[in-house]
Automatic annotation (TrEMBL):
Pfam families: START. Residues 39-222 form the START domain. One of its GO terms (cellular component) is cytoplasm. It comes from Fluviicoccus keumensis. GO terms for molecular function: lipid binding. Keywords: Signal. Residues 1-23 form the signal peptide. PANTHER family: PHOSPHATIDYLCHOLINE TRANSFER PROTEIN (PTHR19308), START DOMAIN-CONTAINING PROTEIN (PTHR19308:SF14). It comes from the Bacteria. SUPFAM superfamilies: Bet v1-like (SSF55961). This is START domain-containing protein.
Length: 235
């Protein structure tokens, strides 16, 4: 073997060993003692007003996540961005296809979404049941509840159906016209995927998604829209 080939082979071996080391560490963290239900702060972006946490529940395969952020837009504008399902590929993390499947009422609907997966993994799809609990002055907030329904429609190979893409999103209007958003969620991508890979994605995806949200609510499509909301966000 030439010196060049030897160097390339050595670099590849080191890369594989490093990857496996991260995998082993992640699996140890996932399965080891003392997992508990404590949220761990993993991101504190003071410039963008975003905080992110994760935790490792004993009864779940992957990490759960939580976000707390301020969006420089009123409640209706934030809701408009979330309700515009077909526009998700423009700002939502690794979404390449999304559409409404069924409108049940003005506070309930189903939608379909396809996510690009990490390299070497098949893309994932999910059917999400969305329920809105509109804002009332007494409560002071609105809720947007999302729950994956894997059996709602037949599989679409080669896509892998996600087992969970569940979130509870809380919107609290602020006196200065901004909106506080709090999110708790859990994602199970289905199929076979290394724990270290999905846990790495779950550290990044929620953060970059809300960054996209902060950006998109400032665009003309949402900021100055005069169109009625497709779903109800206030009583």
């Amino acid at each position: 073997m030439t010196r060049t080939k030897t160097a390339v082979a050595l670099a590849a071996l080191i890369g594989l060993m490093s990857q496996q080391a991260f995998a082993d560490k992640d699996i140890d963290e996932l399965r080891g003692p003392g997992l508990g239900n404590e949220w761990r702060l993993i991101k504190n972006d003071t410039r963008k007003n975003i905080k992110a946490w994760d935790k490792r529940d004993d009864d779940k395969k992957y990490r759960s996540f939580k976000l707390d952020l301020i969006i420089d837009a009123p409640l209706e504008t934030v809701a408009r961005a979330y309700f515009d399902i077909e526009y998700y590929p423009r700002w939502f993390w690794e979404v390449q296809e999304s559409r409404i499947l069924k409108k049940v009422s003005d506070t309930e609907f189903y939608y379909y979404v396809v996510h690009r997966a990490p390299v070497s993994q098949p893309d994932r799809d999910a059917i999400i049941h969305a329920v809105i609990e509109p804002y009332t002055a007494k409560k002071g907030y609105a809720l947007f509840k999302l729950e994956a329904k894997p059996d709602y429609m037949p599989p679409r190979p080669p896509l892998v159906r996600m087992n969970a893409e569940d979130m509870i999103i809380k919107w609290t209007p602020q006196p200065d016209g901004t909106t506080r958003e709090e999110v708790e969620g859990y994602i199970d991508p289905g199929g076979k995927i290394p724990a270290w890979a999905i846990n790495a994605v779950q550290r990044q995806a929620p953060y970059y998604t809300v960054m996209g949200l902060q950006r998109v609510v400032q665009t003309e499509r949402f900021k100055n829209s005069k169109e009625p909301l497709p779903f109800r966000v206030r009583e």
